[in-house]
Amino acid sequence: MAATRPYVIGLDLGGTNSVFGIVDKDAKIIAQTSVKTGKDDPETYVNRCVEALKVIINNVGGIEKIHAMGIGAPNGNFYSGMVEEAANLPWKGDVPLARMFEVKLGIPVVLTNDANAAAMGEMKYGVAKGMKNFMMITLGTGVGSGIVVDGKIVYGSDGFAGELGHVIVEKHKGRQCGCGRKGCLETYCSATGVARSAKEVISTSEVETKLREIPLEDITSYDVFKAAMDGDPIAQSIYEFTGRLLGEACANFTCFSSPEAYVFFGGLTKSGDLLMEPLRKAYDENVLRNYRGKTKLLISALDDASAAVLGASALGWDIERAD
Amino acid sequence: MAATRPYVIGLDLGGTNSVFGIVDKDAKIIAQTSVKTGKDDPETYVNRCVEALKVIINNVGGIEKIHAMGIGAPNGNFYSGMVEEAANLPWKGDVPLARMFEVKLGIPVVLTNDANAAAMGEMKYGVAKGMKNFMMITLGTGVGSGIVVDGKIVYGSDGFAGELGHVIVEKHKGRQCGCGRKGCLETYCSATGVARSAKEVISTSEVETKLREIPLEDITSYDVFKAAMDGDPIAQSIYEFTGRLLGEACANFTCFSSPEAYVFFGGLTKSGDLLMEPLRKAYDENVLRNYRGKTKLLISALDDASAAVLGASALGWDIERAD
User: Angle at which helices B233-257 and B221-229 pack, to 10 degrees?
Assistant: First the structure.
């Protein structure tokens, strides 16, 4: 049944900011607000959010106009509606965020993790529009993923499917990961990973590079990007290494669900061909023959600021309600 | 709509034999026959099959009693109904096997690859009964896989999803695989892989092992199994190595679809704890914290001879027909 109410709310819950958008059926964000995520307990946080939300809800005609709300949050679990043990958020244990918003707002609320929300956004409004099988790979501080099979997000047995950033890609002498294991994809192919590669090269060799002008601990992936664009061969080789590793990893991922496309999103994709060229090359060289030449490697065309909110809001449209 | 006809046909198409079973709604194989797969062209092969089938079809009351037919075949593609470029079969190119049987028999026919058929069998009749999310791993000459998400086999964009035997698990100095790439899981964790490990140890070291009594080229995984059961430490270490590698690989696979269980099937599972103990240990040590303690590692309880036929036949029940 098509939703009769004209709007949904999307919430992109980040470690620093919580951004809300009221979105219409044409994926236009017609009203927006945000609060600092902060260090409050969940109850106080939700109250602050609802206060800010009420203003924009009234501006669009009141809660009667809102069909539902979708939340994208780190460690958000679609099945339970909870944010579970999220390392980047101030809350301990499992927080039933979907239910807390439902009670306060009086509309249905669903929640998923941020990468799954991004995948929803791509499928409904982005470069994956019309695709039934694709993988979303978010390259930010960490590496997130949302896997779409047969037009639906893969949630798995417990709601935690799609953690491709924690596939171990270096079994031997892999980098220490925040998850406690070693060699995870995100220790190499995230923004943090790129900075780490630079620090590693600088501190373990004598090679000449502009990056030495920056205090070691301050180097960011953006510094490496700028140096690479300026022709610094070491900085270029770091992007080459990063792209190759990601391409090899994706070639393996394809054995799982043979996606029509990979959609890359997030800070690191701003480096464009610097990342994508070695990525494509390594993918083509490493993918199983059956799949060769079939899979598109795409960069998201949604802009960072609205993609997460749109993705979260897209979840809202999938909720059935009778009134 | 429930099928009104009482039986389905299952075909397990192997490199050597093609085994047919007529199966009732209680998963009982009520009639069985087989032909040599042989080297004939597809047309002649199908004619031979149909001739053999007619005898058992008549025995159960004629084709009017048969709802549909399911085929499990190497490189079988569910979407196209074709066997596509199968290395172990004598046919060149793509063979529209489902349609060929449909025309000859006058019933609907579906086809999938052998590991997907095995997964169907486990889901309908085996240890995965009632599960919505699990992975089937077949450990035979090669390593095959069938991935079930949300109660359905994952076919992906082209019908070739679920080739986990070709995930590259050793990037550095990996073993040459039949697929042309190096380091694929199946070069280590198949029956062939175990024999290869034995040959490698014997030919590159001076270690003492009973396996030296066997001509190098003749060593099979069963020889390694027997030697291990006899207390040969080298043979034991080979199973240890194999199980560990498979456990590490499965720990990575869990990041995709967070399955409720892995179901292992095929020759190599006959080694029981010799394989499963190091497998479980490596899995537990390597899986991401979110998933720890959640996933069952099971050996199929279906017997080899009937599992493939039952699995293929299970596909038949999923076909809708009006009459």
Answer: 120
Residue B187 C-alpha, separation from nearest chain A C-alpha, in angstroms = 14
B238-255 confidence digits (pLDDT tens): 999 999 999 999 999 999
Sheet (strand B261-265) strand order = B152-153, B143-149, B134-139, B261-265, B296-299
pTM of this structure: 0.94
Residue B133 C-alpha, separation from nearest chain A C-alpha, in angstroms: 6
CA-based angle B255:A83:A37, to the nearest 5?
Answer: 120
> Which candidate from A163, A168, A258 shows the least CB-CB separation from B157?
A258
Of B156, B171, B253, Cβ closest to residue A248: B171
Give the Cα separation of A156 and B56 in Å (integer).
41
Q: Which chain B residue has the Cα nearest residue A254?
A: B161
What pLDDT band is residue B1 in, cutting at 50, 70 and 90?
low
CA distance A215 to chain B (A): 34
- The nearest CA of chain A is from the CA of B159 a distance in Å of 8
pLDDT at B17 over 70: yes
CB contact under 8 A, A290 and B160: yes
Which residue, chain included where needed, has tokens 């960069």?
Answer: A299
Identify the helix (H) or strand (E) that includes residue A193.
Answer: helix A191-204
Residue B289: closest C-alpha in chain A? A179
Q: Do residues A125 and A309 touch, judged by C-beta distance below 8 A?
A: no
> In which residue ranges of chain A is pLDDT below 50?
none
- In sequence order, what are the residues at sequence separation of 6 or more whose Cβ sits closer than 8 angstroms to the Cβ of residue A185? A143, A164, A165, A166, A167, A168, A169, A245, A246, A249
Contacts of B288 in chain A (CB under 8 A): 163, 166, 179, 181
Q: Hey, which residues does B12 pair with through a beta bridge?
A: B19, B72
Which ranges constitute the DSSP H helices of chain B? 42-59, 97-105, 114-125, 186-189, 191-204, 221-229, 233-257, 273-286, 304-317
For B172, the token pair is 């550095």
3-class state of residue A181 by DSSP: coil
Answer yes or no: do B248 and A179 touch at CB < 8 A: no
B108 burial via Cβ count (<10 Å: 0-12, 13-18, 19+): middle
H helix and E strand count, chain A: 9, 13
CA distance A272 to B288: 31
Which residue does chain B place closest to A285, by CA atoms?
B181
| Cβ-based contacts under 8 A for chains A and B | 130
State whether residue B33 is helix, strand or coil: strand
Which among A132, A162, A168 has the least Cβ separation from residue B256? A162
